[in-house]
Amino acid sequence: MDGNDWRETMNQQETLHIIVSGRVQGVGFRYHTQFLAKQYNICGWVRNKDDGTVEVMAQGEKKEMEQFIRGLKKGPSRFAKVTGMDIDYLQQQEQYRDFRVLY
């Protein structure tokens, strides 16, 4: 292992801010998001917004983040329907240690 290996590992980490729209409140979407986050080792949080969307802040390895996003698009059940996702890639600032459902 040379001195540059840590940079490669750091570059694989992503921090995403995601707004999910559709029928995503009152259908178990936040808890589904938390389940996916634990499954894919994602840290951050999820919360409902007043406008009917769900907001997610997520940090994790790039490959796992891709699977996490695919899982979000599917939703928790047939009662949920994701019609849009706005994803912003952020400069990693705050380090999250776990994944929480915020109220």
How is the topology of this model organized?
Blueprint lengths: L4 H7 L1 E11 L5 H11 L3 E6 L5 E8 H13 L6 E10 L8 E3 L2
Description:
With 103 residues, the chain is α+β, with helices and mostly antiparallel strands. The protein has a single domain, classed as Alpha-Beta Plaits. The chain is 30% helix and 37% strand. The chain is built from three helices and five strands, in the order H-E-H-E-E-H-E-E. It has helices spanning 5-11, 29-39, 62-74, and strands spanning 13-23, 43-48, 54-61, 81-90, 99-101. It has a five-stranded mixed β-sheet. Strand 2 (43-48) and strand 3 (54-61) form a beta hairpin. The longest helix has 13 residues, at 62-74. The protein starts with a helix and ends with a strand. Mean pLDDT is 91; it is low at 1-9. It catalyses: an acyl phosphate + H2O = a carboxylate + phosphate + H(+).
- Profile the largest sheet: 5 strands, mixed
Task: Give the topology string: H per helix, E per strand.
Answer: HEHEEHEE
Shape-level CATH architecture: 2-Layer Sandwich
Rg, nearest Å: 14 Å
Portion in strands: 35-45%
Terminal CA distance = 44 Å
> Can you tell me the CATH class?
Alpha Beta
CATH topology (fold) name? Alpha-Beta Plaits
Low-confidence stretches: 1-9
Structural class based on helices, strands and sheet pairing: alpha+beta
Question: What is the share of helical residues?
Answer: 25-40%
Average residue-wise pLDDT: 91
Read across the widest sheet, the strand sequence of neighbours is 4-1-3-2-5
Looking at the chains present, what oligomeric state does this protein adopt?
A: single chain
Whole-number total of structural domains? 1
Number of helices: 3
